[in-house]
Amino acid sequence: MKTLLVLFALLQMICVAAAAETASQRHRVIVLTDMGADPDDEQSLVRLLLYANQIDIEGLVATTSCWQQNAIRPDFIHSILHAYERVQPNLLLHESGYPTADELRAVSKKGIPKYGMQGVGEGMDSEGSDWIIESLERDDARPLWISVWGGPNVLAQALYKIDKTKSESEAKRLISKLRVYTISDQDDSAMWMRKRFPDLFYIATPTDDYGKSTWIAINNNHEGSDNTFVSNPWLAENIQQGHGPLGASYPDTAWGMEGDTPAFLGLIPNGLSDPEHPDWGGWGGRYELSIPDVDAFEDGASVVVPEPETRPLWTDTSDTFYPYRRSEYKRAIERSEQSYSGNAVTLWRWRDDFQRDFAARMDWCLTSYEEANHPPTPRLNHAEELTVKSGQQVTLDAYGSSDPDGDSISFLWFNYPEAGTYTKPINVEGAENVDRFSFTAPEVDEAATAHFVLRVSDKGTPSLSRYKRVIVTIEP
Fold it and tell me: Are 40 and 259 within 8 A, CB to CB?
């Protein structure tokens, strides 16, 4: 009996340690949303809740924006949480860790019903701004992501208060924990923050012309992509209808489908992206640290007119992408001869994958584990970071990758030149769609990095993909 008790205690310790490790890998996020201004915020919240077990949602704050300047609508948040409450038990059949609706209600806060800088300054504190400060002060070493779907003046007020009430060293420590991803500038507090706090980690397209933004790629039709996945018929069949109360709470698109979703897509732990490195790319797009040229924008698409930037921020950059398509004969997956370039490409190149993933998780709201599909598990038989010499032949190996449902899996390897410091394409030697592939390290005069991505996809319905990224340092 004593032996059994010891074994049970050890098992408990292992489970607790595993749970703690899983929690440490999740990203913390507080959402600022102008819920009610455009149904795309409701759409994005529905999707986010399906990943609530993989992202620590520490706040849902109702805010204003240039589109809704004098009102906040927390009731929209609570309506969707009510729908989530009815499917949360079924989601737990598929993956552990989904918080209860009451836990999410407890972190749902109100911003201030004032527009932009009118809501920043003495006497402008709100539940939302105080909650951001409280979350930053929590004993948690992980960065705190602020996912801004509307106006960011609640964050601006938190920074204002930190600046006024904390010592210089403490303010610097707290601000260093912030990671901000804004869906363009939706009030004038955004520019104030970037000027006043030059070290603030900030991802944005500071433009009044949304059509030039990276995030717009989630819903626009793009040549080279399968636009079926963002069509109204696809949304009706795979998300809205026949998927329970959470799917039914996903509204029809008015101006653009889920324009706010890219602000958290990169936080989903799919093996592809590292949010600390926006220049590596992932489901939320790819960004470079630079000073954007606001003179290239044209006034007229928003009431927020961009001003000249005073410091670099993470902003739009470009990828060149050759889409891969399934072939009916011979090699199962082939690369297109047609390439596509631009900042939108950095996001839509992944869109088929993250839309299928969305549809699969929506299925989880009603189905048993056996009836649904779950993502595969890529495996590397070597480290994720390698160092090689110029001219050396390198083999990357994913043999042993698997699928929890027993589905057949497909492999795809490709070089991501824009993500590394060696920016010339490196061709695969042989087939790209096998578990192992080789390449010859190019000649370099000084050490450079090359990024390779493994994409493992199952043949379930819908087909799901997960990734591994291998960073190869090439030395002379």
Answer: yes
Q: Across the chain, how many H-helices and E-strands are there?
A: 13, 18
Q: Which of 50, 88, 9, 18 is nearest to 264 (CA)?
A: 50
Asked whether residue 298 falls in the same domain as residue 380, the answer is: no
> Which one of 316, 338, 366 terminates a domain?
316
Neighbours of 139 (CB within 10 A): 4
pTM: 0.93
The pLDDT tens digits for 374-432 are 999 999 999 999 999 999 999 999 999 999 999 999 999 999 999 999 999 998 888 99
Collapsing DSSP to helix, strand or coil, 211 comes out as: helix
For residue 355, tell me if it sits in a domain: no
Alpha-carbon distance 408 to 397, whole Å?
18
Can you tell me whether residue 335 is helix, strand or coil? strand
Residue 176 domain boundaries: 27-316
**The domain that contains 198 carries what CATH number?**
3.90.245.10
Residue with tokens 């079924």: 90
> Which two three-digit tokens encode residue 309?
């930037």
* pLDDT digit string, tens, across residues 294-307: 766 555 555 676 78
The verdict on 241 and 137 lying in the same domain is yes
The C-alpha angle 80, 45, 88, rounded to 5 degrees, equals: 55
Say which residues have a Cβ less than 8 Å from residue 127's Cβ, sequence separation at least 6.
61, 109, 110, 111
Give the pairing of strands 108-110 and 55-62. Answer: parallel
Q: Is the separation of the CB atoms in 177 and 183 below 8 Å?
A: no
Task: Name the domain boundary from 300, 316, 332.
Answer: 316
